[in-house]
């Protein structure tokens, strides 16, 4: 970072676009350098979108998103915030702009031994609707901006597909459509990806 900052300070960029990018990068690096000197990760700095874009090429390890996982007892699964250690982890995560998920390793181990039809009842008896592992997966997907796609059939909204009764009926009603590569996939879309081989 120090070498990059020195280079940016000596730069004599002429065009305004390059100058603006270099200024955003310099500003971001100065902010990050200060927190790194204080022993904090780079992600604890609040940066503007241009600053984030300007330093992305550096791939700073401490800019990577983090989720802290707190292990709690089975009796604390329904209300983990009462645990003072979970409170400490949540405060630390908040200060470092990170996420927190609570999991009970004991409950997760017991869930693996139960038949799938009994797992829901067991979780209900504990006062929760989803396992800690499920919460962790959901938080990870959210943090990374990921989505899961199950593809089958042609492009049609799921509700339209179900209401029509079949793909042929949806086609007859004009509910099928083609979308380009810029289309943002919506929840419940049923899609067929076409490509040339």
TrEMBL record:
Cross-referenced Pfam families:
YchF-GTPase_C (PF06071)
| Highest taxon of source | Eukaryota
Q: Which GO terms describe its cellular component?
A: cytoplasm
Q: Where is the YchF C-terminal domain?
A: 147-196
Query: Bias regions of kind Basic and acidic residues — which residues?
Result: 13-27
Compositional bias of kind Basic residues: 1-12
Which stretches does the entry tag as region Disordered? 1-27
Q: Which GO terms describe its molecular function?
A: ATP hydrolysis activity
User: Could you tell me what this protein is called?
Assistant: YchF C-terminal domain-containing protein
Organism (species): Chenopodium quinoa
